[in-house]
Amino acid sequence: MARRQWSIAAQLFALQAVVVTLLVLAGAAGAVWLARSDSRQAAQEEVLAVAQTVAGSPDVRAALTTADPARVLQPYAESTREATGTDFVVVMAPDRTRFSHPTRERIGEPFVGDIGPALAGHAFTTTNVGTLGESVRAVVPVYDEQRRIVGLVSVGITTRAINRKLLGQLPVLFGVAAPALTLAATGSWLLSRRLRRQTHGLGPAQMTRMYEYYDAVLHSVREGLVVLTTDRRVALVNDEGRRLLGLDADAPVIDQPVAGIDLPPAAAELLGSGRDARDEPIVAGDRVLVANQRTTRFEGAVLGTVLTLRDQTELRTLASELDSVRALTEALQAQTHESANRLHTVLTLVELGRADEAVRLGTRDLALAQQLTDRVVGAVTEPALAALLLGKSAQAGERGVDLIIEPDCRLDDSPLPTGDLLTVVGNLVDNALEAVAGTPAPRRVRVFVGAVDDELVIRVADSGPGLAPDRVADAFRRGWSTKSTGRGLGLALVGQVVRRHGGSAEVTRSDDGGSMFTVRLPGGGERS
């Protein structure tokens, strides 16, 4: 059976309880020691005052000169002892012979203890063991009229009496220590409860394991993770999150406000807003990211927000190329279907003996298709681009859109890789076809691809409603598109290609009233 581990809160409470108890006990012991010291000091002062008073009494001086000093001094000493609360008042001759003592039988016996300083004329206090036990005593000389020492007075209080007084003070001391101990223990208990709530009752080993797992997961997941507090400060960002957002590995971002961090605009807007987002595409430099952001809560309290990021750049690029291929395939299928219908019509006319009409029908559509093919192939030597434009022409025809290849369109040698070229042209044309969908006839899309002043220029204009002025700046940066939700990354991919090759892109008003997207890329060569 596994041994139950104490939580951090329980360990801290136990440690605090022990420390507080030791401190209170040490304080109480110190207070007792101080009280004992004060009691001894007070006893020394008291016995010295009483001894000086007795030594200065004329009756004492007179009695010391009589033949039987004890007869007068014993009653006087006892009355003084009882009045002052001391334990003994002893009057003696300079040779130590007692003239008074609480025990009458001790009168006439020598005094036990040090009297040297008093014989030298100095009053002093000391602690000695005498016939009554250990005592604090004072010894004072008695002078006659000629300032000769004619006797000594010793007044004392036994240590037992001092301790009895001290014991009377102990209830007061412990009466102060007990509430202090109770108050400290209560504070420690409240603190341990708060700590237990904050640590969820976990022990040190459990918290260490949790941190190790947490750190391992954060550094191993392939998704970027950013955690923000309620005041929009970064609480955590993992390695992948730094990479996807273009942050340096050692950049100080923890506990920094989002507004003060150099983030891609779309990511900064999403993080700063704190709104929930589900599979929202954002562009970060050359990357297309899919972001999910949720508000985090614990026991009903809002802790902040968590943003997860997935890099879908390659997937989106392939999806765009696949869309172009699919569109081309659909266009070819449509042409095949239309050609089959024409062929059946021609065959039927021949069977009906109307050969002239059959010839005119077949040659007319064939001539139109051949003219478009000849013009595109003659202007564009890149086979893939020529096929793309032919496919888009057929696709536009099915939608009732006139796709016009500009007469001066010509591209002999593209500086772009074929994939990038198809991405730019295909997405711009698709965007234009979407823009004119549902608009009144005539619906037109104009395409120009060619070299102008050592630049490759790709220009696509449409007759659609045009791009709103407040959305022009975001068109390429945030992947704006006329397409439905979840498909608006075409222009973002175009923007990626433009940035990767050091080109430029702009949106203006076309002659047909819609939008005109112009992409300029360096290295176009001389225009033919």
From TrEMBL:
EC number: 2.7.13.3
Localization per record: Cell membrane
Superkingdom of source: Bacteria
Entry GO CC: plasma membrane
Protein topology in the membrane: Multi-pass membrane protein
Enzyme class name: transferase
Entries under Gene3D superfamilies matching the protein: Histidine kinase-like ATPase, C-terminal domain, PAS domain
Stretch list, region Disordered: 505-528
SUPFAM superfamilies in the cross-refs: ATPase domain of HSP90 chaperone/DNA topoisomerase II/histidine kinase, Sensory domain-like
Any single Pfam family the record assigns to this protein: HATPase_c
Listed GO MF terms: phosphorelay sensor kinase activity
Entry keyword annotation includes Membrane: yes
Keyword annotations: Cell membrane, Kinase, Membrane, Phosphoprotein, Transferase, Transmembrane, Transmembrane helix, Two-component regulatory system
Protein name according to UniProt: histidine kinase
Species of the source: Micromonospora jinlongensis
